Amino acid sequence: MKQRDSFINDQxxxxxxxxxxxxxxxxxxxxxxxxxxxxxxVPEVVQRIRSVCDTDSECEGDTHKNNQMFNxxxxxLSFSDESEDSNTSxxxxxxDVPPKPTIKKASIKxxxxxxxxxxxxxxxxxxxxxxxxxxxLASLSQKIPLTDVHPDAKKYRLHYKNNKExxxxxxxKLYNEKVFDNKLPEDMSIEWNIRMRGTAGFCYNxxxxxTLGGIVKSSRIVLATKILDTPDRLxxxxxxxxxHAAAWLIxxxxxxxxxxxxxxxxxxxxxxxxxPPIRRCHDYKIKTKFTYKCVDCGYSIGRHxxxxxxxxxxxxxxxxxxxxxxxxxxxxxxxxxxxPKREPSAFALYVKKNYSSVKKERNIKHAEVMKxxxxxxxxxxxxxxxxxxxxxxNADS
Length: 397
Hints:
The protein is α+β, with helices and mostly antiparallel strands and 397 residues long. The protein contains 11 helices and 7 strands. Residues 165-325 form the SprT-like domain.
């Protein structure tokens, strides 16, 4: 019995040691020496005790239960890759991790993008509709792109010089009907003056007394050709001068820019809100063909012709010398370029050499002197051509 008790004590001690080892492995898996072992081996002491103990059915059942519990503990403590019933949510580096679903997020992004695109298209279409409703008078402005102008105004924007008189007549009829209630004469005199270089337009009012005692009032509008070089300038200047004519012909008073003129100007701006403010004086930047620029201080003077002698004229600010520049219009704007120097022609040199001698000998007027010099110069040219032909024929023979 003592021997049996000693064996039982040994058995319980070995089992407690064995269970402590496996609980240690559970709490700290790195303590385990082998990760590939699926089931723990049964110690020899346990096998010896099983052989000594009774083999009754109850004991066998208990040992079977113990073996099952032991096997369950073994499976719980197993860290090998062979276990098929593991439901852990952690993955080893060797496990096949499925990709994260991205279909829903992508579909959400695409729907948001489509919604933004639809909003942008609606805004663009609304802007296009607003731009398509641009009036005829507003389309004459240089600020409006040609793609958005009124169809009737496109030819005046593209070919203004050839159609400026037609545009002037159309604007006069439009203003007379909408602003002045057709009280201005239909056949009012409108002239174009190429010599006006400082004022865009004039309105000359006249009062004449007939022999029978009647008084007749009339107005005449004069427009500057070189200043009104764009359709919007013609649009704004014409209504300005027509307000002067209305104050004289309708109200019977020529008050300049007084209350009657202001009344008609305000009515015109109320009738056509797209018109700019009608002012007393214009601030147009006059385009000139030539520019005389001081070499020292940079002061410049615009001229439509070569009217200054740069050898004699000097700058009024610093007495510097002028240089002549050519104003060339390009797509980007006006570019100033150096004027090419032209050498005098052969006829000019001949006139300079022989003019004084012919005038003194014959004592005739300038026109007759130039006529004689022209005949002499043409005779010299014909003689030179004949000499060249004779020399060429002799050389060929």
